[in-house]
């Protein structure tokens, strides 16, 4: 009887312990998935501008990149942030915005941009905040990813993050001059570009001129050199019996000037400007996301 009672007590204890573990598991899992302490926007920045939770960088690469992010952030008064994770909860754009907001990256300056990688599904996201929303336009973000994508696909994450930092530096310098990297922006030509264009123009001009000259030369093979101008004179000479001008008609062509329909509004999908959305904190963000 005592043995049976001990067995029942052990079984009950095991079941109770199992239920406690089951109840605690979702809490622990949730706590491990989020990288902020609470769903309230803090008054100060809580984390470094680089958090490599997916361990994609070596220690030296992390130190070099963090120095660059800190230097550029302070130079332009805009937090430039990098986050890597193995996986995340919910849509990656929402997670990136929440990480930015609830770790206080919008408190140092009223401007910021975050680049996030999630390795489980090979996803990326860009989130912008404050004045950086207009600095990093939808078109500019697309060109930024064009710069980074070859590195990401080759697994060169240090190269990708440095390309991100350098592109941020370039866009912020343009913004300082009053110009955003947007649809229709023309890259300034360097001296090397001008020399290259000049050489290409000369080569094309020579090739275009060579073909008609060779064609005309081929048609002159049966022509003999004339010794005097008599061969070119019409027999009996040329006589003009009537000489007068006759006005026939006049014609006027009108082309309507197209009206300017630009209202000055900022759009998205490469129509110019930056599209925006609201995060869970109620803050306005720009951004984009995709896979690599």
Description of the structure:
The chain has a six-stranded mixed beta sheet with strand order 1-2-3-4-6-5, sandwiched between helices. Helix 2 runs parallel beside helix 7 and helix 6 packs antiparallel against helix 7 (157-176). It has a domain at 50-183 and 272-291: Roll (Diaminopimelate Epimerase, Chain A, domain 1). The protein has 292 residues and is an alpha/beta fold. Helix 2 (59-76) links the parallel strand 1 and strand 2 (79-85). It has eight helices and six strands. It has helices spanning 2-33, 59-76, 92-102, 105-108, 132-135, 138-153, 157-176, 191-218; strands spanning 50-52, 79-85, 111-118, 123-130, 276-278, 284-291.
**Strand percentage, roughly?**
5-15%
* Number of distinct helices: 8
Indicate the overall shape: elongated
Radius of gyration: 35 Å
Helix content class: 40-55%
Mean pLDDT: 80
The CATH topology of the domain at 50-183 and 272-291 corresponds to Diaminopimelate Epimerase, Chain A, domain 1
How far apart the termini lie comes to 66 Å
CATH class of the domain at 50-183 and 272-291: Alpha Beta
Structural class, please? alpha/beta
Strand order of the largest sheet: 1-2-3-4-6-5
Instruction: Give a short account of the largest sheet.
Output: 6 strands, mixed
Segments where pLDDT lies below 50 for 5+ residues? 15-32, 189-198, 258-267
- Topology as a string of helices (H) and strands (E): HEHEHHEEHHHHEE
Counted beta strands: 6
CATH architecture classification of the domain at 50-183 and 272-291: Roll
């Amino acid at each position: 009887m005592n043995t049976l009672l001990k067995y029942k007590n052990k079984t009950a204890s095991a079941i109770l312990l199992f239920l406690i573990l089951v109840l605690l598991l979702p809490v622990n899992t949730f706590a491990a998935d989020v990288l902020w302490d609470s769903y309230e926007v803090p008054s100060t920045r809580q984390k470094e501008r680089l958090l490599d939770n997916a361990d994609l960088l070596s220690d030296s690469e992390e130190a070099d990149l963090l120095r660059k992010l800190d230097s550029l952030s302070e130079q332009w008064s805009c937090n430039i942030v990098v986050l890597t994770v193995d996986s995340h909860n919910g849509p990656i754009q929402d997670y990136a915005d929440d990480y930015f907001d609830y770790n206080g990256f919008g408190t140092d300056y009223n401007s910021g941009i975050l680049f996030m990688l999630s390795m489980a599904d090979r996803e990326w996201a860009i989130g912008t905040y404050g004045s950086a929303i207009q600095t990093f336009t939808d078109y500019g973000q697309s060109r930024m990813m064009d710069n980074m994508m070859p590195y990401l696909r080759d697994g060169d994450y240090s190269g990708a993050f440095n390309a991100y930092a350098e592109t941020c530096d370039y866009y912020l310098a343009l913004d300082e001059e009053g110009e955003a990297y947007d649809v229709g922006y023309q890259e300034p030509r360097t001296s090397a570009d001008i020399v290259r264009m000049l050489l290409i123009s000369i080569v094309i001009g020579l090739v275009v001129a060579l073909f008609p000259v060779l064609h005309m030369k081929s048609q002159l093979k049966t022509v003999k050199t004339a010794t005097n101008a008599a061969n070119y004179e019409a027999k009996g000479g040329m006589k003009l019996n009537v000489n007068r001008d006759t006005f026939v008609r006049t014609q006027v062509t009108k082309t309507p000037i197209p009206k300017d329909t630009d209202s000055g509004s900022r759009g998205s999908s490469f129509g110019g400007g930056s599209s925006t959305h609201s995060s869970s904190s109620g803050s306005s963000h720009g951004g984009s996301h995709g896979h690599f």
